Amino acid sequence: MMDYSSRPVFTSILLATSVLGYSKVAVAQSAEDSAPQFTDIVVTAQKRAQNLQDVPLSIQAISTEKLSELQIQAFQDYVKFLPSVATQNVGPGYSLVHMRGVVSGGDGNHSGSLPTVGTYLDDQPITTVQGNLDIHLYDIARVEALAGPQGTLYGASSEAGTIRIITNKPDAGKFEGAVDAELNTVAHGDMGGTLEGFINAPLSEKVAVRAVGWYRHDGGYIDNVRVVRDYPSSDAVADNEALIEDDFNDVDTYGGRLALGIDLDDNWTIMPTIMGQKQKSHGTFGYNPEVGDLDINRYRAEFQNDRWYQTALSIQGKIGNFDVVYSGAYLKRKLDGVSDYADYTYAYDVYYHNIGYEFGEYFVDDNGNPTNPSQYFRNRDRFTKQSHELRISSPAEHRLRLVAGLFYQRQKHDIEQRYMIDNIGTAIEVPGWSDTIWLTKQDRIDRDKAVFGELAYDITPALTVTGGLRYFEYNNTLVGFNGYGAGFSSTTGEAACFGPPTTDNAPCTNLGDLDEDGNVIPKRAKGDGVTHRLNLSWKIDPERMVYVTWSRGFRPGGINRRTGLDPYNEDYLTNYEFGWKTTWFDRRLRWNASFFHQDWKNFQFSILGPNGLTEIRNAARARIRGVESDLSWTIVRGLTLTANAAYIDAKLSENYCGYTDEQGEPVTDCAAPEAPEGTQLPVTPKFKGNMTVRYDFPVGELDAHVQAAAVYQSSVWSDLRLIDRAIGKSDGYGSVDLSAGLRNDVWRAEVFVTNLFDVRGNPFRYTQCAVEYCGDIYYVAPITPRMIGLKVGLDF
Question: How far apart are CA 452 and CA 120, in angstroms?
Fold first, then answer.
């Protein structure tokens, strides 16, 4: 049989994948008190297995048990229990994640900035520009959230932090499996449910396979209600009567994971893995408060189909007494959908009509008659991403310890977005694309490579200094076509083309450069630099540690798709942090906290410019200060309390004027800044916290539990610029979840209620176009209304 315990590298693997959660307690107990101690929590945040209390950085870990106890199955479920994390969420697969207030707003456009938070599946990055993979969480060892710049070990998209999803690995030491099912109903909405299971099967003493599968249906709760819209400039009428539907935002998700663990000998193991998921959603996940509670007006049947798979290979072994790890992955993602965009057309029609310009007269059929100008868009996005990392680690027990490695990543995005109006004339279409008034057909490639290393040295048995550097290079390109056909615009789109098409079926190229021979080449942004981390930790005694950290993260620059705009520059985040990790009262109370100050320089800021085109400019500087704290307490045997909170004060430290100088540096001295110094950064609440109380107790021969969990966050703005705050501020809100259940060694059953009081929390609001035009038609993205459910499971 596989004997991982005899080899440090494999011991690390098993330790890292069998972590117990905060609510799980050891059976040993103090002689003076019946309350047991907490077990140690093992994480791999620093590329080696460590007790959470020995890691000198701010990190939270949600274990397998905790994921189940908190009804966590998807991205939005676990984010609410991470106080330093905030999101912009407009639907499944389109969540933008932010940490510690490092966010300026923006719209997550396909040509926009790379994220500031990196997301990893095991050791492989899965971050994409338009939103995180919405991975269904089942048979997951834990979720780790690393706050602050992780640019030494994790690279470009970890400027503000990193989220890691760690899967359970094959184990040749035992045969096991489980089947779990759930049935639920959503207030104001429909029924939903889940069926999922896994099996771990030894194939020999040195080979094991682990297979996981899931299906989940989320019932809708937003209604599409009837409205008749009159376009004043053309007398066209739009009526959505045929699309009236209750609970039209349902989601179906199914997928699986297969991993094979093979011991080649006593020192080397390989682990190929494949994971895939298909998620189809209908409708939209925001509602218009002016229409009604959980009501919306849509003029097009909407859907999004998100399909992806990732193949990965991990090779782990030893050369001498050094651990060697290779992690490689290939990700392929396909997004197809249709989304209503009628607000954009209507808002511009009304605006221009009011100033005497009949905007709608341009939208006619082949006979010159006005058409219904309500727009919608079809998106067809194709992502591929490959990543490779090779690293070595010296023995963890040595006084001087090294982690060093090489990293390479290449992600390609084939962008196709068609803004469409039914029955428009051939003369005003984009050539070759029927009913298409605007086409984006571009190829985007983001490349980065790095050399990194960290050294830790024990000055004394209690005092350790750690220093790390990462040298990086990035090379990002964008080429293709975007805009109108020449029959609609004489200055933009096709009329601005300078070369033949470089992307499939595009009419020509208007975004790119020309080489010396006059050939079209991609527009390019490239650069290099160094990020660092310096940390000093002092182990006061075996149960208490304090640390200080000075670290720096970065985000690569990129290309503006609007003709005439220069590329935007990289931005940097410098972090100063003081924290502690402590346990008290015979290891029954764990209290960790950190204070931080961050300077964000020349940060990238996305705005909707003319014609609704995204522009990215380097803004100015921001100053972010805050405190994070988490507490876990076993009050008496069976009764545990956990609490996590963050207070974050994120403000501009210079004016944002909205433009840059000739060198691309942001101008900060202007008469009327779009956001003056002292403006609060958007999306992240000043306060966010949660508390969970759980009581485990026996009922005859069964184990029973009751649990209450509460979360709260304060109000937030959705954008940085004052003009965009006209749509209002999202109020603070709190919600409460309850659960109760029974189990034995074979089966388990639980009833639960999430959002008990049916609070209409809305952490994000948005419009379809610039607020000065669309400000009267805005949407709020609510948390899920009250859900009541039953879960049952069987272990074998």
Answer: 18
